[in-house]
Amino acid sequence: MLRDKNLVPLSRQHQHALALCVRIDRTLQAEEADCSPWQAEMWQLWQQEVAVHFAAEETILFPAAARFPELQELVSQLLDEHRTLRTAFERASRTELASQDLLAFGAQLSGHIRKEERHLFEALQKLLGPDEFNQLGDQLQSALAGAADACIIPTEATRLRPQRSK
């Protein structure tokens, strides 16, 4: 289903986070890497985008969705996942994550994003009327104003490298 314009800012931020997940997975599955630069990038993403993103979802999007009985369990799951992911970001700020932790984080974050995109967003697009959706979109736009508007550029240590021939 085509994404409603009112959810596009959240989806754009999801793309930025998914890019980090893909790079973490591809790099750490292929080689032993220094975890510090990855954790620094995670923390940078949290500070520039994810903290504001989570706050917008938790104060605007999730309450709007929780009004529908069929979405209440999903919203509860997403809130639990936010708590788990927030802990991982905090641990990254203290460089406490090993490569297996980073791989688990990437899988958790990408799974969380896909759940929001495929289940929550799709359901809201069917349940909300145009006026209500526009109001929600205006609130989200205001709430997301404090977030960066561009994807983080990987450092030398966190950029994808061409795969070697076997």
Mean pLDDT: 90
Radius of gyration: 17 Å
Q: Characterize the quaternary organization of these chains.
A: single chain
Structural class: mainly alpha
SSE series? HHHHH
Measured between the Cα atoms of the first and last residue, the distance is 40 Å
Describe the structure.
There is one protein chain. The protein has 166 residues and is an all-alpha fold. The chain has one domain (8-146): Up-down Bundle (Four Helix Bundle (Hemerythrin (Met), subunit A)). The protein is 72% helix and 0% strand. The longest helix is centred in the first third of the chain and has 32 residues, at 35-66. It starts with 7 loop residues before the first helix and ends in a 23-residue tail after the last helix.
List keywords for this structure.
166 residues; mainly alpha; 5 helices; elongated; Four Helix Bundle (Hemerythrin (Met), subunit A)
